[in-house]
Amino acid sequence: MPVFNSMSGQETNPTEDQAASAELEAKSSILAKIKILAFLAGVIALECLAAYLYLPSAAETAALAEATLATPEEGQAPTEDAETEEEELADQVEVDLGEFSVTAFQPISNTTLRIDFHLFGTVRAEDEAEFLSLMEENLHRFREQVNITVRSADITDLTDAGLGLVKRKILEKTNRTLGKPLLRVVIFSDFSFIEQ
Question: How much is the pTM?
Answer without folding.
Answer: 0.54
